[in-house]
Amino acid sequence: MGCGVGRNLAYLDSGSIGVDHNEASVAVARARGLDAMTVSELFSSDDVTEGSFDAILVAHVLEHMPREAALDLLGRYLPYLRSGGRVFLVCPQERGYASDPTHESFLTGAEMVALARAAGLRAERWRSFPLPRAAGKVFTYNEINVMATKP
C-alpha cells in the first residue's frame, strides 16, 4: 500500500497489486506495466476479499501521518491479509526523515513495533537497513524495518 509510481512493485512477484491514493501515481505505475489501483478501485474490486493477500508492504507511508491515522490505515487493510500473512513496515531514519517536508511523524524502531502490535499484529523486533542504526543520522537512505505477522 502506498505504491506510488511502482518503484518497489516492479520487484515483487507477478500477482502483486499496488495501491495508492494518488491517481497520477497509479497511472504512472500502470504505464510501466504494473498492476496498480487507486484505493477506491481496490476496495470496490470483486477480486479483493477478506484474507485474499499473503503480505502487505508499507514502505515510506507511515511517516506521512500521525500515529492514529497510521493505525486507522493499517486497520483498513488488515482484514484483507490472511491469517499468518506478513506486513513489512519501512520508515526512514533521521536523515531520510529530514529530507522530505511532507513527513509528519518520525518513528523509531520501538515505536514501529508498538504500532504493529497496537494494530493487532505480532512484531518482535526492528532492524536497521542497509547500514547500522548510527548511519541513519547521516545517510538519507537508511531505514527502519519491521516484519510483523497477522495471528
Describe the structure concisely.
The protein is of the alpha/beta class and 151 residues long. It has helices at residues 23-31, 39-44, 67-77, 94-98, 109-118, and strands at 18-20, 36-38, 53-59, 81-92, 122-129, 143-149.
SSE sequence, one letter per element: EHEHEHEHHEE
Q: Compute the average pLDDT.
A: 96
Overall tally of domains: 2
Question: Main sheet?
Answer: 4 strands, mixed
Output the CATH topology of the largest domain. Rossmann fold
Overall geometric form:
globular
Computed over alpha carbons, the radius of gyration is: 15 Å
Q: Give the CATH class of the largest domain.
A: Alpha Beta
**What is the first-to-last residue Cα distance?**
20 Å
The unreliable regions are: none
Strand order of the largest sheet: 3-4-6-5
Share of β-strand residues: 25-35%
By helix and strand content, what is the structural category?
alpha/beta
**CATH architecture type of the largest domain:** 3-Layer(aba) Sandwich
Count of helical stretches:
5
Helix content: 25-40%
CATH homolog superfamily of the largest domain? Vaccinia Virus protein VP39
DSSP summary, beta strand count: 6
Structural account:
Helix content is 27%, strand content 26%. A 4-stranded mixed beta sheet has the order 3-4-6-5. The protein starts with 17 loop residues before the first strand and ends with a strand. The protein is globular, with a radius of gyration of 15 Å. β3 (53-59), α3 (67-77) and β4 form a beta-alpha-beta unit. It is of the alpha/beta class and 151 residues long. The protein contains 5 helices and 6 strands, in the order βαβαβαβααββ. It folds into 2 domains: 1-48, no CATH class; 50-149, 3-Layer(aba) Sandwich (Rossmann fold).
